[in-house]
Design brief:
five-stranded parallel β-sheet; Rossmann fold; 28% strand; single chain; alpha/beta; 15 strands
Length: 251
């Protein structure tokens, strides 16, 4: 799991990070990373680079903006629909309006609470996340690892991979988030039979293609996602899609 802490008060920030680290040690829980920051843009950038189970502790008021944390939580939900969000705040009156932001907050933790009380709230957040991991539906995962990065993401979420302006840096486009990592499209294509390089800039997950539009030269996954396809690759893509569909019908 990955832990994100957004707090602009350095004293509260350090206190909560210390509590989190103590809880991890006491319960023998491990975290891939702990990101502590006062900058929403930095946190959101890091969220896009992670795909494991995430937990977020967000201050509601940031730099004098009383609802900034709620706005950040809303942006997080665009990237991560499953993560656990808890607000660290002195503004408990904001609890009812979180519904309007559609962020599904798990908890509100009052900054002025005794340390033991804060600690119990944090433990409850971790236990909720871990319980979801254990009891959730087992999904087939795409696992990637090299000397630069490692991550895993459900195959069902993968739409396509695309090149970026940086040499050998790819962007994975999923239904709910983006992941940037270093590799080549040729390397990715070889990792699974469902991956197919349809264009010099794109490798697609054939399972999630909704339509191939020949006249436009585009592949559609849903209303929000599409990418280009080389016309000479259309026939092969359709054949591979049919082959995959037949395989799953037999099984």
């Amino acid at each position: 799991m990955n832990i994100f802490l957004l707090e602009d008060d350095i004293i509260h920030q350090q206190r909560l990070e210390l509590i989190i680290r103590e809880i991890l040690v006491e319960n023998r829980w491990s975290a891939n990373s702990i990101v502590t920051t006062a900058r929403p843009d930095h946190l959101l950038e890091k969220v896009q680079e992670t795909v494991d189970q995430n937990i977020y502790f967000l201050d509601i008021e940031l730099n004098g903006e009383k609802k900034k944390g709620l706005e950040v939580a809303h942006q997080i939900r665009q990237l991560d629909q499953r993560g656990v969000i808890a607000f660290i705040t002195t503004h408990s009156e904001f609890a009812p309006i979180t519904y309007a932001y559609k962020v599904s907050a798990f908890d509100f933790i009052a900054k002025d609470s005794p340390v033991d009380e804060i600690k119990q709230h944090v433990v409850d957040c971790f236990e909720n996340l871990l319980s979801t991991q254990l009891n959730g539906k087992k999904e087939e995962l795409f696992i990637f690892s090299n000397q630069h990065t490692s991550f895993q993401v459900p195959f069902s979420d993968i739409l396509y991979f695309e090149t970026t302006e940086i040499s050998h840096k790819l962007r994975l486009i999923c239904k709910s988030r983006l992941v940037n990592f270093y590799a080549t499209l040729d390397e990715v294509e070889k990792m699974d039979a469902r991956f197919f390089k349809i264009h010099r800039s794109f490798v697609v997950n054939l399972e999630n293609i909704a339509e191939i539009n020949r006249s436009e030269g585009l592949v559609y996954f849903d209303k929000a996602h599409s990418c280009m396809i080389s016309r000479r690759k259309i026939r092969t893509a359709l054949e591979k899609m049919n082959s995959i569909n037949q395989h799953f019908q037999k099984n």
